[in-house]
């Protein structure tokens, strides 16, 4: 009989299992402490549980934890970590240290089917959703990496491989384990979930009144341009996206962030800046302008510094909050849009 993933057994299902095997209900809390506070990857590690319970747990369940297959470190201190899962699938996470924070960038899928015109992950056609436990494993591994270097993990961004809102339940469950008790007890304000603009998912986040930050990969506020860059825009065009963002802000009070790749001759004109300014009138927002990281498969180039400066000045004159983000980890293909399971066996 195939064993179930112990980390997928929650709430009443766990209590029913314990009752069936004549175990006290408080054992559920102990199991969860081992899973989500101590990061147990083997049932026999749960040493404060009675042997009879360990036996029945081991007979029915397993803990298919992710393993670190490979890690590469760039000269700027950024590390790209290749994770292998129980079925041989791979995904990558990134450890990003900086002067004020240490960030874990984690994946929610082992590939992505959105086919954005600038993203290497979209070249991976065979993928699946990651479980909440598999997402949690990435955070724990990068947290341990930080601590080994004398640092403390301060922030988590769901900006790795995959579209988080197409794996909604597992992503939110993983956030619960990261922020909850039993769990890592991190503040939701330290977590950002990024989406390409899945409108129903944004609306559901609003209804669920999530407390983490929401970032949207926008890259253009002109439908024609965004259609070319992000095919998902044909399904959820900018008008629908704007309504979803307004709804999210009304429900949560949160200011969202736009991620905007600066692509030479594509979306970096002052006409594009004007369209972006108009689009942002309906809700409070901050804008991160991101340096493009070249990908061999695509004939795209980063904007010139002069063009970026002009773009920033145009937006700031309209009282918009704008940050220019310099990417880290390009040397090892660990920067935004570059994750594609390259060199995982090196």
From TrEMBL:
Where S-adenosyl-L-methionine is bound, by residue?
162-163, 194, 217-219, 293
User: Which Gene3D superfamilies would you find in this protein's record?
Assistant: 1.10.150.530, Aldolase class I
- A biological-process GO annotation: rRNA base methylation
**Cofactor: how and how many bound:** Binds 1 [4Fe-4S] cluster. The cluster is coordinated with 3 cysteines and an exchangeable S-adenosyl-L-methionine.
The places in or outside the cell where this protein is found are: Cytoplasm
Active site located where?
A: 92 (proton acceptor), 336 (s-methylcysteine intermediate)
Per UniProt, what is one Pfam family of this protein?
A: Radical_SAM
Cite the InterPro entries for this sequence: Aldolase_TIM (IPR013785), Elp3/MiaA/NifB-like_rSAM (IPR006638), Methyltransferase_A (IPR040072), RlmN_N (IPR048641), RNA_MTrfase_RlmN (IPR027492), rRNA_lsu_MTrfase_RlmN/Cfr (IPR004383), rSAM (IPR007197), rSAM_sf (IPR058240)
SMART domains linked to this entry = Elp3
Annotated keywords = 4Fe-4S, Cytoplasm, Disulfide bond, Iron, Iron-sulfur, Metal-binding, Methyltransferase, rRNA processing, S-adenosyl-L-methionine, Transferase, tRNA processing
Chemical reaction(s) catalysed: adenosine(37) in tRNA + 2 reduced [2Fe-2S]-[ferredoxin] + 2 S-adenosyl-L-methionine = 2-methyladenosine(37) in tRNA + 5'-deoxyadenosine + L-methionine + 2 oxidized [2Fe-2S]-[ferredoxin] + S-adenosyl-L-homocysteine; adenosine(2503) in 23S rRNA + 2 reduced [2Fe-2S]-[ferredoxin] + 2 S-adenosyl-L-methionine = 2-methyladenosine(2503) in 23S rRNA + 5'-deoxyadenosine + L-methionine + 2 oxidized [2Fe-2S]-[ferredoxin] + S-adenosyl-L-homocysteine
User: Which terms in the Gene Ontology molecular function aspect does this entry carry?
Assistant: 4 iron, 4 sulfur cluster binding; metal ion binding; rRNA (adenine(2503)-C2-)-methyltransferase activity; rRNA binding; tRNA (adenine(37)-C2)-methyltransferase activity; tRNA binding
Q: Does the keyword DNA repair apply?
A: no
**Other comments on record:** Reaction proceeds by a ping-pong mechanism involving intermediate methylation of a conserved cysteine residue.
**What does this chain do?**
Specifically methylates position 2 of adenine 2503 in 23S rRNA and position 2 of adenine 37 in tRNAs.
What is the name of this protein?
Answer: Probable dual-specificity RNA methyltransferase RlmN
Q: Tell me the gene name.
A: rlmN
